[in-house]
Amino acid sequence: MLSVATRDKNSGGTVDAVSLAIIEQLQEDGRRPYAAIGKAVGLSEAAVRQRVQKLLDQGVMQIVAVTDPLTVGFRRQAMVGINVEGDLDPVADALTGMEEVEYVVVTAGSFDLIVEVVCEDDDHLLEMINKRIRTLPGVRSTESFVYLKLRKQTYTWGTR
Question: What percent of the chain has pLDDT over 70?
Fold first, then answer.
């Protein structure tokens, strides 16, 4: 499955309606031809190509292939809540550098950080938590939430 994830880091929080329509077209099918998108949004193929490139360059969106971890050999996914003593940034930076970590979120509430990890199996998850995450300087505690079944995962936010 190809998907488009939007994020608006450089454009001051506004994306015009035409760009949103282009993003929505790509969220439905990340390989949709520019000519087909142009017909749907009322622009030429060249204008769509330029807008898509600008959205990519500005970091508003990225076009990626989204895989199902189970089909590519990763049998265990988990969310890990982490409490930190002191500055969060060094811990967040270290977690960001770990290949198994899909995302790192600084939170307010019961945890200082929440990370999603994708591992080959339970032994790999145990190694991640016990040997790599818990041993980071500043990590005070962790709580793991093992995924039993993923019921919904979409990337259509930002346009609907």
Answer: 83
Distance, in Å, from the CA atom of 81 to the CA atom of 90, rounded to the nearest integer, reads: 16
* Phi, psi (rounded to 5 degrees) for 71: -80, -15
Q: Is the pTM of this model over 0.90?
A: no
The rounded distance, in Å, linking the Cα atoms of 159 and 19 is: 10
Do 16 and 26 contact (CB within 8 A), yes or no?
A: no
In 3D space, the residue among 23, 9, 2 whose CA is nearest the CA of residue 60 turns out to be: 9
Neighbours of 141 (CB within 10 A): 12
115 φ/ψ angles, rounded to the nearest 5 degrees: -125, 150
Contact yes or no for 108/88 (Cβ under 8 A): no
What whole-number distance in Å separates Cα of residue 26 and Cα of residue 21? 9
pLDDT (mean) for 27-33: 90
Task: Tell me the two tokens of residue 19.
Answer: 């760009």
Nearest to 61 by CA among 3, 6, 18: 6
Which residue type is seen at 106?
A: V
CB 38, CB 44: distance < 8 Å: yes
* Residue the block writes with tokens 């035409």: 18
